[in-house]
Amino acid sequence: MQKRTKALAWLCTKAIFLALFVMPSCGHAASDTNSPPPIPKPGPLAQPRSLQQVGLPLDQTRATIPPDNPQTPEKIALGQKLFFDGRLSADGTVACATCHDPARAFTDGRPVSIGIHGRPGQRNSPTVLNALYNKTQFWDGRVKTFEEQAELPIINPVEMGQTNMDAAVASIQAIKEYRDDFEKVFGRPPNGPDIQRAIASYERTLFSFNSPFDRFIAGDANAIDDSAKRGWKLFNTQARCNKCHALSDNQPNLINFTDNDFHNIGIGIIRHHVVPLARQAEKLVNSGNSAAIDRAAILTDFSVLGRFLVTKKQPDIASFKTQNLRNLLLTAPYFHDGSQETLWDTMDHYNKGDGVQNPFLDQDIQPLALSEDDINDLVAFLASLTSDDYKEPAAKELARQRAIAKTNRPQRDTARAFGPKPVQPPPGP
Ligand code: HEC
Ligand code: HEC
């Protein structure tokens, strides 16, 4: 039995190695039999958003524009066109918008994304709304800027599948309309960095505020109900959410409710033996570049290692970026692996202080002793972070989740939620 496990582990390493460096298309659970979902059309929700929104921080918004990539209306329009254009992918079938659909607050509604030839990745698609305020991009923060970020899905074998940026440039260059656009915007023919600049410019127009909570903070005491008010209070006290979803315990971050940091909160950890995995990853990732790390994160079991893939520091094992909490009713399912279906499930996860047998669990994750009423209040607060543009679909989704949560609470563990803080095992050698 022991031998068999070892042999399996070796095979697994070998498969991961092949997936990373030799045959990118043989990724984890890759399948060429399906087609990706159709590319969404750029409707009203895809348009650059107004700066006139309650809660929008003007100075911080302007500060996100890098001096070497100033915003112009023509560049933004070009970026928007590229964002929705499947011709940027290897076979014309996948665009950025495939996985970042404006109707779903620029996510795809799936646990993990599906790219070219219907190939699944390992991670949940995060919203691009308000991503301009992120200090780093991706769940593990492996890149800092939109410009750097935009290249990686284009050349990832389970996303847009181009062999390299030159191949993507060739398909864009073949189209006269784009040759004209690039000439007009950049004064030169299409090339990789300019494609990335244009897409980044468009993404820097996707801000989303104007929620009932923003109006409440702006002084309208009736903008949210009592339940949401109690939820906001719990968020900053007993529920301990402000330990991570704020700039500091006493300083909220009303932009995206994040500390811009990384934490192991016990997601996905049970399915994997992360320490041996980390040892294997270190060898592979040390020899790689950003494209290799990108493949490790999206294609392989190494995905679960999170921030460790970037820093190679043991305490970062299975740490992920504190996620933006706006428009959550449009961005289900939740967490980096899309493992939780409803907001009630995410609250149950936190309430029991999950992380059984998890040496790297963040010290701020611990049993919370929240009652059912408390949980409902926290959900009401989170729901109040929905922008007006998404009011109707959000109300429908809240009703759907509430109905599910009435009978199905797979993460609920009241004994643990009201029990003592468990002792975690040491990390081991
Ligand atoms: C096949 C689905 C898919 C496609 C196509 C895709 N993405 Fe993504 N995107 C994802 C997933 C999954 C992640 C999270 C990956 C990770 O963190 O490792 C992500 C992350 C991002 C992020 C980081 C957001 C954050 O909060 O960290 C941005 C920005 C982004 N994508 C923009 C784009 C752009 C621009 C394109 C087109 C050039 C694109 N994506 C194409 C699935 C996709
Ligand atoms: C120790 C830090 C920490 C604390 C405390 C914390 N969070 Fe989080 N939160 C995170 C991180 C990190 C993620 C992303 C984790 C992942 O996907 O692996 C996250 C993700 C989430 C998500 C999922 C978002 C999405 O789009 O997938 C929700 C909802 C959430 N947190 C709400 C809360 C609430 C409400 C509380 C308080 C009860 C709370 N969090 C407490 C760090 C924390």
From TrEMBL:
Stored PANTHER family: BLL6722 PROTEIN, CYTOCHROME C PEROXIDASE-RELATED
UniProt keywords, alphabetically: Heme, Iron, Metal-binding, Oxidoreductase, Peroxidase, Signal
Organism expressing this protein natively: Pedosphaera parvula (strain Ellin514)
Residue ranges, annotated region (Disordered): 29-49, 394-429
GO cellular component entries: cell envelope
Keyword Acetylation: no
Assigned EC number: 1.11.1.5
Signal peptide: 1-29
An example Gene Ontology molecular-function term: heme binding
Domain called Cytochrome c: residue spans: 74-183, 226-386
Signal listed as a keyword: yes
Lineage of source species: Bacteria, Pseudomonadati, Verrucomicrobiota, Pedosphaerae, Pedosphaerales
Main location: other
InterPro entries named in the record: Cyt_c-like_dom, Cyt_c-like_dom_sf, Cytochrome_c_Peroxidase/MauG, Di-haem_cyt_c_peroxidsae
UniProt-annotated location(s): Cell envelope
Name of the protein in question: Cytochrome-c peroxidase
Matches recorded under PROSITE patterns: CYTC
UniProt-listed Pfam families: CCP_MauG
Pro residues bias (residue ranges): 35-45
